UniProtKB/TrEMBL annotation:
Gene3D superfamilies, per the entry: Dinitrogenase iron-molybdenum cofactor biosynthesis domain
Residue ranges of domain Dinitrogenase iron-molybdenum cofactor biosynthesis in the record: 11-102
Name of the protein described by the UniProt record: Predicted Fe-Mo cluster-binding protein, NifX family
Residue stretches in coiled coil: none
Stretch forming the signal peptide: none
InterPro entries in alphabetical order: Di-Nase_FeMo-co_biosynth, DiNase_FeMo-co_biosyn_sf, NifX/NifY_domain
Organism of this sequence: Propionispora vibrioides
Pfam families assigned to the protein according to its UniProt record, in alphabetical order: Nitro_FeMo-Co
Length: 127
């Protein structure tokens, strides 16, 4: 199962930008045991009437992603991302290291979900 992660970064190596002020998002495709750079999206910054409009534009630009990593994410942006089904995470450090941790957690989450389904599959006949 593919999982897209948008990372706010200057250089594609470190998570080092605030969500609202980043110039580009590095999009990584996370597979079960590996990840790779899928796309680099420049942020278009035309004149906006207000901050909310600017945040909506940012969220729409990465709407196909499942998760967002940034050095900082404001509460308004976090809510907008959540409404679109994206998981916002504040993180710092090397992108590779953070993505390896996320891949491990996703694998563990999928294993637990699969295990629960198998363990309780027979309960449906009694309910």
């Amino acid at each position: 199962m593919a999982f897209l992660v948008a990372v706010a970064s200057v250089d594609g190596r470190y998570i080092n930008r605030h969500f609202a002020t980043t110039d580009k998002f590095w999009i990584f495709r996370l597979m079960e045991d590996r990840f790779y750079l899928d796309d680099v999206r420049d942020v278009d910054r035309p004149a906006y009437a207000n901050h909310k409009e600017m945040l909506l534009n940012l969220v729409e630009g990465i709407a196909d992603c499942n998760m967002v990593l940034a050095q900082q994410i404001g509460p308004g942006a976090a809510v907008m991302l959540g409404y679109r089904g994206m998981e916002p995470y504040v993180a710092e450090g090397e992108i590779e290291e953070v993505l390896n941790r996320i891949a491990w957690l996703q694998k563990k989450r999928l294993y637990r979900a699969k295990r629960r389904t198998t363990q309780f599959s027979g309960l449906g006949q009694y309910w």
